[in-house]
């Protein structure tokens, strides 16, 4: 399991990657210490009942899809559609759909905390955790400064 833990300093958007082997580290932007108290007996793919960093029970699931890969797929799709759609009788669009379908099953899922935005990679899928819910997120939003990790 790996955890992307965001810095707690106000206005800092830094983070560090933590694991049971390395439960503490420094923010890569400001250098503040960041740590998580991992349980002593941790299975290889635990189902998280709550966030290990802040204890919040509200977690959600999303695909850990790299933004760069998403942009590459979009550009490739546009080029294929413009260059080959007429010559292939629209089969290039089918290729784009198949690529998207394959990527959906290849890209892993991550679990994210609504309160502190800690991102958990390599954890088991807890059936209580669903996709992002704006109403739940609104419960944790900071009224002064909304946006970014943990309301930063």
List keywords for this structure.
152 residues, alpha+beta, 2 domains, 6-stranded mixed sheet, two-stranded antiparallel sheet, 3 helices, 8 strands
Can you tell me about this structure?
This protein is of the alpha+beta class and 152 residues long. It has 2 domains: 2-64 and 108-151, no CATH class; 67-105. The chain has helices spanning 67-84, 91-106, 134-140, and strands at residues 2-6, 15-18, 24-26, 33-35, 59-63, 109-113, 119-121, 130-131. The chain has a 6-stranded mixed sheet, with no helix packed on it. A hairpin with a 6-residue loop joins strand 3 (24-26) and strand 4 (33-35). The longest helix is centred in the middle third of the chain and has 18 residues, at 67-84. It is elongated, with a radius of gyration of 19 Å.
Describe the protein's topology.
Layout: E1 2-6, E2 15-18, E3 24-26, E4 33-35, E5 59-63, H1 67-84, H2 91-106, E6 109-113, E7 119-121, E8 130-131, H3 134-140
Parallel strand pairs: 5-8
Antiparallel strand pairs: 1-2, 1-7, 3-4, 5-6, 6-7
Helix pairs in contact: 1-2
* Spans where pLDDT lies below 50 across 5 or more residues: 143-148
Element-by-element helix/strand order: EEEEEHHEEEH
- The secondary structure category is alpha+beta
Strand order of the largest sheet: 2-1-7-6-5-8
Number of strands: 8
Q: Rounded to an integer, what's the Rg over CA atoms?
A: 19 Å
Helix content: 25-40%
> What's the number of domains?
2
Mean pLDDT: 84
What proportion of the residues form beta strands (DSSP E)?
15-25%
- Termini separation (Å)? 25 Å
**Largest β-sheet summary:** 6 strands, mixed
In DSSP terms (H or I, runs of 4 or more residues), the helix count works out at 3
Can you tell me the overall shape?
Answer: elongated
